[in-house]
Design goal:
Number of domains: 2
Helix content: 25-40%
Distance between the termini: 113 Å
Order of helices and strands: EEHEEHH
Strand order of the largest sheet: 1-2
């Protein structure tokens, strides 16, 4: 049976170092292995925390994304309540413009 050393990094940045038979970690940390593999560091520069969040930021820095999402929801709801003004059709033929121009401004003889 192979002997391994638990490589789990604790909160104080020290390695656990317990002897174990499982390569994923000792009896305390083997459940954390898969969870910690999925974690990514916070996107904010200088932050050393890790997160599983879809925003990519730790809870300390994710509030800016939540507030931005809230503002955008409010904006879209307000835009949805505004009445829609239909746009006038645009004529693409120049012949109609010429006939309208002649009708409005008859050529003097």
């Amino acid at each position: 049976m192979a002997r391994f050393t638990c490589a789990h990094i604790k909160k104080d940045n020290t390695i656990c170092g317990n002897k174990c038979c499982d390569p994923t970690g000792c009896y305390r940390h083997w459940k954390l292995y898969e969870k910690n593999i999925e974690k990514k560091s916070c996107l904010v520069s200088g932050c050393r925390k890790y997160t599983l969040s879809t925003t990519g930021c730790c809870p300390d820095h994710s509030s800016r994304f939540h507030s931005l999402n809230y503002q955008m929801r409010q904006k879209y709801e307000a835009e949805a309540l505004q009445p829609k003004i239909p746009e006038a059709p645009i004529s693409e033929s120049d012949d109609n413009n010429a006939s309208i121009h002649e009708h409005l401004f008859p050529a003097s003889l």
